[in-house]
Amino acid sequence: MLTNFDLEKMVDTSNEWILERTGISERRIADPDIATSDMAVEAAKATLAQRGIGPEALDAILVCTVTPDMFFPSTACLVQDRLGAKGVWGFDLIAACSGFVYGLTTAAHLVAAGTHDRVLVIGADTMSRIVDYTDRATCVLFGDGAGAMLVEPAENGEEGFIDFLNEIDGSGGEFLKMPAGGSRMPPSFETVEKRLHYVHQDGQQVFKFAVRRMYEVCRDLLARNNLTANDVAALIPHQANRRIIVATAERLGLDCDRVILNIDRYGNTTAATIPLATRDAIEAGKLKKGDLVLFAAVGAGYTVGASLWRWSY
Ligand code: UT7
Whose CA is nearest to atom 1 of ligand 1? Predict the structure, then answer.
């Protein structure tokens, strides 16, 4: 665990600043020998155990991540092998903080096509490996984590996936990125020296975009389904900044007890925030069978996404 007080000793920051500007108190940091696939496997096993099925029952595995163990093989392949999930296919999905929302929507369409019965969607990120712990503007924000969900055909027509609204806007790519390590800027002594293998963010630019689009995408998705905020039992948003989430809820007119917030304990775990927050919502009794749930995220890219589901267990 890495607390705000720990960070006070590492960079020029304060518990008060971090809490007030982000809502974060502490984050989980993976041990040095743990990589993204290790956390993804644990999340997958827990989800399969909860559903009472084995890995052979899966048809596909999607791993949403920006911190794969390595470029290739994909983390999905590593997870498949470790699970012993014979005969499945899968891939990694890179959509930064919107990764899990995009993964869920992709899985819903694979299942709706009638070609897949069980798609495991995993959100896993080891952000501590790409965060610069000398940069106070970013190092206070991120944590490590993983979570998973299983998407299956609904047993009756009333539960399951309802609709989605996703959008990418590459004009915002400059504002949140890891500049080096890819084909544009392969690793060199210079890229390492200039600390280009870390997250670089223009926080204010991303904040302005996120606070506007998170609200708009939720509003538009509800409106085109003839729903209002009052119909939503739980808004489960990506956890990047408490202020973005609270502003979204206020503009939607959603009671704060229907908004799932756990950023205080985990920070921004990128693709893992939504499955982790969903688990917390279920444990707190805020998400039950038959409830309408709205997932929403904005992240690097820019990527924007929201999806509406009627919860089925
Ligand atoms: O999940 C992916 C998408 N990411 C996001 O949605 C993140 C969006 N951005 C944010 O959440 C916020 O912009 C931040 C939390 C990153 C920053 O909050 P802010 O209110 O936008 O602060 P700022 O960047 O405008 O900085 C305000 C001041 C600056 O000092 P001056 O220029 O006013 O003297 C910063 O240098 O706060 C300073 N500052 C800090 N001070 C103490 C920046 N980081 C820190 C820090 N501790 N850790």
Answer: 240
Taking each helix axis from N to C end, the angle separating 15-22 and 242-252, rounded to the nearest 10 degrees, works out to 30
Residue 313: pLDDT band (50, 70, 90) is confident
Per-residue model confidence as pLDDT tens digits over 108-158:
999 999 999 999 999 999 999 999 999 999 999 999 999 999 999 988 778
Q: How far apart are CA 93 and CA 88, in angstroms?
A: 16
Protein residue whose Cα sits closest to atom 41 of ligand 1: 13
**Could you read off the pLDDT of 53-92 as tens digits, one per residue?**
999 999 999 999 999 999 999 999 999 999 999 999 999 9
pTM of the model: 0.97
Question: Distance, CA 21 to ligand 1 centroid (Å)?
Answer: 7
Q: For 27-31, 195-199, 255-259, which range has the lowest pLDDT when averaged over its residues?
A: 255-259
Residue nearest to atom 13 of ligand 1 (CA): 203
What are the b/e assignments for 119-155, b being 16+ CB within 10 Å? bbbbbbbbbbbbbbeeebebbbbbbbbbbbbbbbeee
Ligand 1 neighbour 273 (Cβ under 6 A): no
For the beta carbon of residue 182, count every other beta carbon within 10 angstroms: 11
**240 CA closest ligand 1 atom index:** 1
Q: Which atom of ligand 1 is nearest to the CA of 96?
A: 2
Expressed in angstroms and rounded, the spacing between residue 270 Cα and the centre of ligand 1 is: 17
User: Which residue spans of the chain are classified as CATH 3.40.47.10?
Assistant: 2-151, 161-310
Q: Which CATH fold topology does 2-151 show?
A: Peroxisomal Thiolase; Chain A, domain 1 (3.40.47)
pLDDT of res. 184: 97
Kindly provide the residue ranges of all beta strands, DSSP E only, lying in 28-140, ordered along the sequence: 60-64, 89-93, 119-126
Instruction: Please name the residue whose Cα sits nearest to atom 16 of ligand 1.
Output: 203
In CATH, what class is 161-310? Answer: alpha beta
**198 CB under 6 A from ligand 1?**
no
